[in-house]
Every structure is written in structure tokens, then in C-alpha cells.
Amino acid sequence: MGLPVVLLSHRAPVSFRREGGERTARRGAGGLVTALVGLAGQLDDAVWVAAASTEEDIAVSREHQGEDIPLVMDATPRIATAEEAEQGSGTPCLGIRLVDVEAKAHEDFYAVVANPLLWFVQHGLYGLSTAPVLGQREREAFEEGYVRVNEQFAEAVISEVQSRNGHALVMLHDYHFYLVAERVREKCPDAVITHFVHIPWPGPDAWRVLPKDMRERLLNGLLGNDVVAFHTERFARNFLLCAQELLGLTVDLAAMTVRVGGRVVSARTYPISIDVESLEELAQSPAVRERADRMEAQLCGEGRQFLLRVDRTDPSKNIVRGFLAFGLLLEQHPELIGKVTFLAFLQPSRLDVQEYIDYVGQIGAVVARINAKYTREGHGPIDLRLQEDFATAVAAYTVCDVLMVNSIADGMNLVAKEAVAVSRRDAVLALSESTGAYEELGAFAVTLHPFDVQQQADALYAALTMSEEERRGLSSAAARVVRENDVKKWLDVQLADVRALLEP
Ligand code: G6P
């Protein structure tokens, strides 16, 4: 791809820290970073714009005076030497530009508007007891935080595009930046602009929670793109229905386009995936195998089984109802008490947002209740670990019996794809019908209905008591789907579509 690429996401692909006087760079976890870092290897000229999120990020960004920072992106990323940046080092080199956002504006942007407001609206959490109230604080935070921060990032993107003579592919990501495309288009009319929304896009009624002017500004901002992309057809269709119902625009649901003035904006579907090869490498590394063997010895065999979940502590993940369903399972099938362990790796998330702090408290309370009721001979049925440890989570993927994903709503859910790709014991996926992943993997999973705890308990029972043959059939079919549609395909299809868009 000859065209330079300017990427934008809130989280950077690396974050810098100072450890023992030394500056270190850590590669960000998560599907998006893995997927997009892969791009760097394929492109001659790519820059990634993101927020400076640590003290050391800010120091690095000041040293480079807001200019691009050349990075060598291998297993342990580092800033490239001047020579490497000039000549290329054989390993993929990627420029990053870290934007230092003023603290109050960032808090309004991140902790009041993006999460929880937009996140809650888009995941159908608005109106539940954990949901925020939309008031003066939110309106102010929208203007002073969301709009301002979007302007600041748009300026950074514009300067990157302009330094490439105005010709670039701009790839914007997620709900933090719905107002960026419109501004970039104004200043850089020759750029091709795409925006990937990684979270669900609900239909018009859900958006009516937001004041009219706010939802119209968000939609109009996104319509500054050439392509708005989603993980499922349903989200893409909902987006067009919003343009039709909330803005009165003419949409073509067969062609999946909407007319905006003289332009046509396309809504496209590209289901994101994982880097199967590198996940398999990690799963087979001695350290991960050793952990997996230990877990297997402790939790499997002799009639024992283990159920796993791996999530951020996010209300959209439906963790509390998942534990309630597990409690019901033990109540209704007492023969499973002492035999089934529920291992829950929960990574504390967004603890600068009150709703998320409250949610961790609710999780703790329900786990304590169930463990108090069903602990036998020192064996508590739920092993809750509030930690971020990807290697241990991968070890657990390889040996668990059942992986539970019961999200209320989820753009994709890569945990489901990761677990089936590396399972060595034919793990059964118990998967919410409200995840993007369900569209690809639902046929090879036990379905969970996120609000129905009895149904979830029954489905977990079915998964745990399934015959070996049936398990193998489902697990291998799911793994095949993931292997055949890995993250490289996700990128290739998008780049091919952009090329088609550029053809006269
Ligand atoms: C989701 C979003 C990402 C976000 C991630 C972690 O996957 O789609 O944009 O970065 O959650 O959330 P955080 O608030 O920690 O960045």
C-alpha cells in the first residue's frame, strides 16, 4: 500500500515507564494494538497518534516536541536510534505521536463522556441501576472535554496528513473520537478517512437518551468519514438507520450507504480477529505450559472440571449475573459442589469512573456470598483473581473445560476467539448471543441469554456435562473458524476496500 497511513486511537501501542531510573516501553495489550502493529510491517509510512497516558509518556512526547517518535516494534519495543529510523532496522518501525491532553479536559472526556456516557448508551446499560444520570455536569463535560479533546486530536491528525502533502489514509478508532473525521475532512479534502467503531452500535431509540443536539453532532461528526466500519452487519445497519431517523438523510440499505450532501458514506462490516500464530507461540512457551500443567493438575481430572472467565471489570461484561447463574447451578445440581471450580480472571478497569468502582464492589459481594454458601473442606467454588496477567489467562484458556462469556452487549469479544484457538482440552464456549463473536461462533457454542440467569445456569450445566465427542466437534469447528479468519484477513480486506475506493 503506497499511501501513507495515519492511525488514531485513544490508547497508544506502547506506554513508557521509569523503572529503577531506566526508561522502559511496554507494548499495550489487546486486540487492536496487536492488529494494528501488524500494519506497521506492511506499510512504508505509518504514524500512530494516541494519548500520552503515563508521566513518562508525557516526558517522551515533550522531548520529541510533539513530533513523531520512531519505535522499533518487536517483543520489547524501544525508541529507534537515529540511524535505525533513517534506514530501517529490519524489524518493523512505527512512528507514534503522543498527544498530551490537559488533565481536567481528559477527565471530562474519558471519565464523564466516553466512559460511562457513550459506552453505557452503546452497550444498553443506560437506565440500569449502575447507569449515570445525564445532567449539567455531563453537558459541560461534553463541551469542555469531549469536543475539546476531539479538536486537539484532530489537529494532530491534520498536521500528520499535511506533512504528507495532504494525501493519506486516515484510520480513526472507537467511541473516543466521533468528532475527528469531520474536522480532518475540512482541512484535508484529499485524505481517505475511515472510522472503526469497535463497540456495539444500537438502533435510533437507544440514542434518544442523549440530547438532540449532542446525538446529532456525534452522528454528523462520523459522517465526515468515507467509510464507517463495524464488527457486525447489525451494527452497520443500525448506524444507517440512525442517519435516516435521527438526521433525516437518505440511506440505501441494499448498498449500505448514506448520502451526505454530494458525498456517499459507506457503512461496512469487518469482524476483527486475533493473531492466531503469535497466540499459539505464547501458549506453547515453556512458562505458559508450566502454568497450564499446574492448573490442570489442580482443577481437572477425577471428575473435577473448571469453568473460566477472563474479562475487564466492566458492567457490560455481566459478571455479577454470571456468578448468580453459577450459584443457581450449584444449588440445583449439588453433585457439582466441590467438583467444579469457577476461575475468574478479572482485570480491574476504568477505576477513575464511579460506576466501575461500584461494580467491583458488587462483584466482590456476590463472590463472597456464593463462596460462603458452597465452600466444602476448604474448597471455595469461585477463585476470583483481580489482576491483569495475560500469560496466566492464556494458560487457563488451554486447559479450561468451559469458557463463559455472558456480556450484555459486546462489539466482538476476543476472549472467545483466543480461548477456542489455543484450547488443548476441547473447551466448550458458553457465549452470549449479544456479542459480535456470536455471529461467527454461535453455531459452535452453547448460547447464553445475558439477562436470564436460569437459562445461563442450564446452559452451563449442558456445557459441563456434554459428551467428549460433542465437545470435540464444537471446539474444533470453532477453532477452525478463528484460524481461517485471523487478524491479517481483517486488515487485508479493509485495505483492499480502500484501494477500490481510490480507483477512479
Ligand atoms: C474496549 C474499547 C477500547 C478500549 C478498551 C480498554 O476494548 O473498545 O477502545 O481501549 O476497551 O478500555 P480503556 O478505557 O482501558 O482504554
Describe this structure in words.
With 504 residues, the protein is of the alpha/beta class. The chain has three domains: 5-99, no CATH class; 103-272 and 488-502, 3-Layer(aba) Sandwich (Rossmann fold); 276-484, Glycogen Phosphorylase B (Rossmann fold, 3-Layer(aba) Sandwich), CATH 3.40.50.2000. Helix content is 47%, strand content 19%. The chain has 19 helices and 19 strands. It has helices at 31-42, 55-63, 82-87, 103-122, 136-162, 180-187, 204-207, 212-222, 233-247, 276-284, 286-299, 319-332, 354-374, 390-399, 414-422, 437-441, 453-464, 468-484, 487-502, and strands at 5-8, 14-19, 22-27, 46-51, 69-72, 78-79, 93-99, 169-173, 192-196, 227-230, 251-252, 257-260, 263-269, 305-312, 340-347, 382-386, 402-405, 428-432, 446-448. The chain has an eleven-stranded mixed sheet. The chain is globular, with a radius of gyration of 23 Å. 48% of the residues are buried. It binds 6-O-phosphono-alpha-D-glucopyranose. 6-O-phosphono-alpha-D-glucopyranose (G6P) binds at residues 10-11, 115, 174, 198-199, 349-350. 6-O-phosphono-alpha-D-glucopyranose (G6P) is lined by residues 10-11, 115, 174, 198-199, 349-350.
